[in-house]
Predict the structure.
Amino acid sequence: MRTHIVLLGLPGVGKGTQGQRLSARMNIPFISSGDALRNELARHTEIAEEFEKYMNAGLLVPDDIVEEFIADMLAGYNLKKGFVFDGFPRTVHQAGFVNGYLASRNTAIDAVLYLVAPDEEIIKRISGRRVCPKCGAVYNIYFNPPKEDEKCDICGTKLVQRDDDKEEVVKNRIKVYKESTHPLVDYYNNLGLLYEINAVGTVDAVQNRIEAILNG
Ligand code: AMP
């Protein structure tokens, strides 16, 4: 059973939704660099000033800044039983950094799940995405709506749309993904760690495909 997992794929392909489910089912931490960065912004911390402009423009935070942030973030987790990483590594440079960091903690990635869906599907998913600002749960008003209008099923907080889910920023994020993050597909394929998953279909159907691969 593979339990040391990286999620890879376009923004909006379902990494957060699937990652949170995997984490709950396998009892391993779900660790999202995007959530952690947004959390710093919400708290107006000193380091948030450094990366706010990149995030609001849909650009990647530069590797040197984000790698330090990732190391600090990971230091707070027990990674022994496994993990689900969402949103990092995002560049080949970050991938090298993460490998080195994990080695220093006597662990390593054993599966990279590459979630794939067509661009048109992605745009629809992102425009419908709503998140809970309190607990981080992710919904979609078309595909996975909350039980009660605009409210989180888990904690009842009013759901919001992420600033960078607005259309112009989304187009930029897709472009940046293709240029900077997509090369990781070859990188992890060469390491024998890559598993491609068809991410079209219901949340349950995609989850079943993921579990079949992790159990295999
Ligand atoms: P996400 O929620 O993963 O889509 O991340 C939202 C934004 O946070 C991205 O558009 C980037 O500006 C920034 N970000 C998150 N993770 C990383 C990363 N590993 N490297 C650089 N920037 C990141």
About this structure: Strands lie at 4-8, 30-32, 83-86, 111-116, 129-131, 138-140, 194-198. The chain has a mean pLDDT of 94. The chain is about 50% helix and 15% strand. The longest strand covers residues 111-116.
